Structure formats: structure tokens, C-alpha cells
Amino acid sequence: MFTKGSAAVCIVLFLAALNPATLPLRAQASDSGASSHKATAKTLAVSYLFPEQVTVVADKPTPIDLHFKVAPGLHVNSHTPHTEDLVPTTLKLPETSGVRLAHAIFPPGADFAFPADPAEKLSVYTGEFIIHAELVATKGDHLVEATLKYQACDNQICMPPHSIPVTIDVIAK
Amino acid sequence: MKRNVLVVGIVVIVIALLGLAGWANWQNRKQAAVKLQVEQAKAVLVPDNASPNGLSMHSPLVGKPAPAFTLTNLKGEEVSLASYKGKAVQLNFWATWCAPCKIETPWLVELQKQYAPQGFEILAVSFDDLDKEDKTLLAKEKVDIAKSAQKLGISYPVLLDGDSISKPYGDVEVFPTSFFLDRNGTIVATSAGLTSKDELESNIRKALGEGK
């Protein structure tokens, strides 16, 4: 009755039951949720969407669009906030990467006012925004880790300025 | 022989299906984790039922002694929390880049003047970054904080390097955040985010032993 074949099937099924990849989604998600909301708010207000890889002409300025998304309910200051003490959204490339940021055009910010002070308008980004960048790269492959610095708030709180990596694989031919 | 081939075939198919299911599940989990992180990024604050206008931070520090600290003020003098014993104190964690802080600061200035005769003090704890390694930059940063405080009309002490005392205060990461201390140095109330002048006043009265 209990042949070698059926024993093999049983072993496979037993191993599958132990496979973490097949564990229920909810259990995994609740583990992630254990981290504090505040800490996550600090690090994930803005996500870098794409592109991950670009091909450019070596030593010539090449335009690329970098796409970002601000988490729902939050806003970040635009590149040109209305007052100088607010932290602008900026993009930086490391100097030693073989890729230079020749130029960057940030989108204009949208007016935003806190409900408690409707007269004071801020210039902010919400939802998705695109930075039109011009890169100049020396010939070869470069894995560039640029940095987007921003400062996020919602309607009542602000979080400290934060930077996220913007990793781009630049192939210059 | 045929039977063995059949069994091996079934095993291979089962393994392949499991692999596929595992991969699909992993993809789903990845997407769900991203979704979850975005949700968490909203930094949810819980409305305080007792005060419909305000937001209350449910801090486990309420009812406990305020963690001791010594920080430097804008004049370079050391200021200890211990020296405020016998007074009701509001520790107001703020920063020059914090727009909601600018809205509440004029309220705090008024409330401080109003309740000072009863023994109420505010300590503005700045969370602005300080480049301690670069003296020129550090000096500029201190000047910027002082200018901002002056512009806002802050008449109470401004203490620097709030980040250094964040941990014992439960990792202050949203601004403005306030802790209200009674005359014995016990935390009697906290608030996170822009509340209302009434809410602030209610907490100040609590610290003075006048509120509920």
C-alpha cells in the first residue's frame, strides 16, 4: 500500500508545509506591522519609483525622468519652498560615481495651507512627482546611488528631514 | 518501471507547482508589504475623546517622572530640567523647519505669559540638526535657530540638540510634540502634532494642578 512513490509525495508535501514562502500572507504582514508607525513615517514618506536603468550617450548630457511618489496623506516641501527655513526637496549625485548631474528641473509645487492657518501658503509636492534630470556619464556601466532629500508633513505633524537612495544603473555608450 | 516513472513525474510536477505557488505568494507578500509600509507612513495620530479639538499621544511616560537632562541654551549656558523642580513645565519639541510648530508657537508665547505668575515655564527643545564637527557650520546653525526663535517671538528658553534626549522621551519623531510636567516633575499629559490653543491650555492647567 505504502509504496516508495507515495512516501516521496508525502515527503514533498511535508517539506512544502515547512516552506516559509507558502505561509499565509497575513502572518507575514502582521510581523512587518510590529515596527513603529513613527519610525516608518520617517523613512517612507517618499518612494522612488523608476527608472532603475538608463542608457545614455557617453560624455553628453542626456535627459532622464526620475519618478517619485509621496505617501497618501503626506506632503513634502517643493524644491522652492516659500520661506527659506523650510527644507527644500533636493537631488544629489555622489561626486565619484562617474556620473554628473548637469541639470535638474523640479516640478513647481502646489499651494498647501494647514487648516489652522489657511492664510499661510506652502509650496509642496503630493502624490507622484517627476524630476527631469540631465546626466553626463563617462563611458561604461555605473551603479549610481543618488540621494533625494525631503522633509515631510501631514495636516498636523512634521517629520525630520530625511534622505532616500535613488539607485540608477547608468549604461553610457 | 512505468510506475516509478509516473511517481517521479508526479513528484516533479508537485515540486514545480509548489515552486510556482511559493513564487506567486512571495510576489504577493512583497506587494502587500509595500502597501502596508505606505499605510504606516501616514503616521496615524489618535484623537483624544476627552478633547475633540486635539490630538493626544498615548505615551507610556504619562504618570512617570520626566527623564532628566541637561542641554545648552542659545547663549551657550547649560540648562537642567532638575532646576525647574517646583514649577509646572511644558517641554515643547520643535524645529525651525516645522510649519505646524510655527502655528502653535504664538499660542505658547501667550500661554506662557498668562500662566507664568502661577509658576509655569516652557522649554523649547530644538530638533534642528547641529554639525558638531564643523564649527563654522555649527555657529551658523545656532544663529539660524536664534533668528527663527526671535521671528516667532519666543520669550522662553530655547535648548539645543533635542535629538540627544529623544530616546528617553520615547523617540520623539513627529513635531510639534509636548510633554507637560507637574511641579514634581511627573509627566501628566503629552500631545503630538498641531492641537489647539484650548487643548494646550487644558494640558498646562493639568500641569499646574488645576485641570482634571
Describe the structure.
The complex is a heterodimer of chains A (173) and B (212). Chain A has 173 residues and is an alpha+beta fold. Chain A has one domain (42-172): Sandwich (Immunoglobulin-like). Chain A contains 3 helices and 12 strands, in the order H-H-H-E-E-E-E-E-E-E-E-E-E-E-E. In chain A, the strands form 3 sheets. Chain A has a 4-stranded antiparallel beta sheet with strand order 1-3-9-6, with no helix packed on it. A 4-stranded mixed beta sheet of chain A has the order 2-12-10-5, with no helix packed on it. Chain A has a 4-stranded antiparallel beta sheet with strand order 7-8-4-11, with no helix packed on it. Residues 12-37 of chain A have low confidence and may be disordered. Chain B is an alpha/beta fold and 212 residues long. Chain B folds into 2 domains: 1-42; 46-207, Glutaredoxin. Chain B has helices spanning 2-40, 99-115, 135-151, 197-207, and strands at 46-47, 55-56, 70-72, 78-80, 88-94, 120-126, 158-159, 177-181, 187-192. In chain B, the strands form 3 sheets. Chain B has a 5-stranded mixed beta sheet. In chain B, a hairpin with a 5-residue loop joins strand 3 and strand 4 (78-80). Chain B is elongated, with a radius of gyration of 26 Å. The termini of chain B are far apart.
Annotate the secondary structure layout.
The complex is a heterodimer of chains A (173) and B (212).
Chain A lengths: L3 H15 L6 H8 L4 H7 L2 E5 L2 E4 L5 E9 L4 E3 L12 E3 L6 E7 L4 E3 L9 E4 L2 E10 L2 E11 L1 E2 L8 E11 L1
Parallel strand pairs in A: 2-12
Antiparallel strand pairs in A: 1-3, 3-9, 4-8, 4-11, 5-10, 6-9, 7-8, 10-12
Chain B lengths: L1 H39 L5 E2 L7 E2 L13 E3 L5 E3 L7 E7 L4 H17 L4 E7 L8 H17 L6 E2 L17 E5 L5 E6 L4 H11 L5
Parallel strand pairs in B: 5-6, 6-7
Antiparallel strand pairs in B: 1-2, 3-4, 5-8, 8-9
Helix pairs in contact in B: 2-4
